[in-house]
Amino acid sequence: MTRALLFDVFGTVVDWRNGVAREAAPILAALGRGDIDPHAFADAWRAGYQPAMEEVRSGRRPFTRLDVLHRENLETLLARHGIVDVPEPVMITLNTAWHRLDPWPDVVAGLTRLRTRFILAPLSNGNIALMLNMAKRAGLPWDAILGSEVSQAFKPTPQAYLRTAEVLGLSPGECMLVAAHNKDLAAARACGFGTAFVARPTEKGPGQTIDLRAEQEWDQVATDFGALATALGC
């Protein structure tokens, strides 16, 4: 029986692309580079996400918080655009754009309904401070604030899923991952988790070509968190 719903966050719970673009636009303009498309900037920053985590997953680098990886990728991206010697307070503000992302419109109401029957927590590659600040700003009603420090691993490494269940005192079979990404769900299922797919067809912008639909027979497939709550009897 499912007791906990654990959520992928970037893309599933929050709209990272528009949020990062919103935060980046005025800073880029203030740095004299208002010519840079803020959405393209967000996409390029995000493109460094998986390669940076792969250094950890492969064992080539010790576990490193996502805030640090984001900062390193940001410095590389700014240098690529010829932007150097940025004041440290500005760098901190820009790097923590990921802490200030907006939830999709259905999220808060959907989570509130789901919380009446299930334990809710993030199962994200983001670190605890990032998840905490995001939740406080966006009003996300988590029962526990978990981050990648809990597992010392990044998805889709099995430890990321199994250690999260363990710290909640649950078996994998008592946990269900809710995600907009088929690969994430496949990794969770391989660890014994239940699975729920919620499509976010605009996560990567108007040209998105992946994760537009469920690619396997997941335990639940829903159009949004409200529909998932209905399907789960909340």
From TrEMBL:
It catalyses: an (S)-2-haloacid + H2O = a (2R)-2-hydroxycarboxylate + a halide anion + H(+). It comes from the Bacteria. The keyword Disulfide bond does not apply. It is an enzyme of class 3 (hydrolase). GO terms for molecular function: (S)-2-haloacid dehalogenase activity. Keywords: Hydrolase. It holds the Pfam family Hydrolase. Coiled coil: none annotated. InterPro entries: 2-HAD, HAD-like_sf, HAD-SF_hydro_IA, HAD_sf, PGP-like_dom2, S-2-haloacid_dehalogenase. Its EC number is 3.8.1.2. Catalyzes the hydrolytic dehalogenation of small (S)-2-haloalkanoic acids to yield the corresponding (R)-2-hydroxyalkanoic acids. Belongs to the HAD-like hydrolase superfamily. S-2-haloalkanoic acid dehalogenase family. NCBIfam families: HAD-SF-IA-v2, HAD_type_II. This is (S)-2-haloacid dehalogenase.
